[in-house]
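Hi Y.,

Following your request, here is the sequence exactly as I used it, all 298 residues.
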Amino acid sequence: MTAAGTGRRSLKQRLAAGERLHGALLRIPSETLVEMAGIAGLDYVVIDCEHGPADLTALQHHLTAAAAQGIDVLVRVGAAEPALALRCLDLGAAGLIHPHVGSARDARAVVAADRYPPLGRRGFATYSRAGRFGTVSAAGHLAAAEETLVVVMIETARACDAAEEIASTEGVDAVLAGPADLAADRGFPGPDVVGAMVSRVHRATHAAGRAVMTIVAGAEGAREAERAGAQLVLYNMAQVLMDTFRTLVPPRPADGSAPADRHRCPAPPGPAAPSAGARPAAGGAPASARPDAPRHTS
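Below is the corresponding structure, written out as tokens. Let me know if you'd prefer a different format.
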């Protein structure tokens, strides 16, 4: 949504001021999770349209939920999808994350998709949701579009070699190294190899004066990312939720089977023990327990 209509500083402005921003990566469509992220105080959410559904109607619902809670939305699109990038920005996304950027040429292409001329080739329209349905001027809409955050992902060894050129591309605001794809590209080597590649990308990003985005699995990973200089910390909510669910499962036997009493209700209490002063009847049972004992009703 056009910044003038939100009353908030953009993510881009906050990064320029030196703020560290925390967000949630959502692969599971859920407006409720978007709202909860805003209520909890996170700075942004990322809606994943690369590995998650790219349903634009659902995306608009997520953007509306985010606006109600005052939280910004970044959208991860697929590789080389300028048409989807245009629609996401027209719906009011604060910025885009572009995967598989392997060269400076690729970086220029994603900037061109996200930005209006003269820097880019984004199609111009103010009657979209981002233009507040035609209620802002062309100049106001252009000024707001200058705050679009452009994040590129480096995910191959070839891209690591070009990290400095990619990060230095005009219009690129932040860089995210994708450890999973980096590992796949190298045939899943040891973590030290992937860690060295990620560190190389981060050094190039800092040298270019751009923000580093890092995906983390929880609070401990976030602190490590912050110490390493990440300005955009992104919680992988699929992992956070799975880790939380696992803590709720009772311990299992070594063979992996469910505990025998896991779903068993507690046994009902037995008959009350006789009081200390009760006199046992013949046969050893209290008189009140004998079938021939008189019964009193009130």
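The beta strands are 21-26, 44-48, 72-76, 95-98, 149-154, 174-177, 211-216, 232-236.

Thanks again,
Q.
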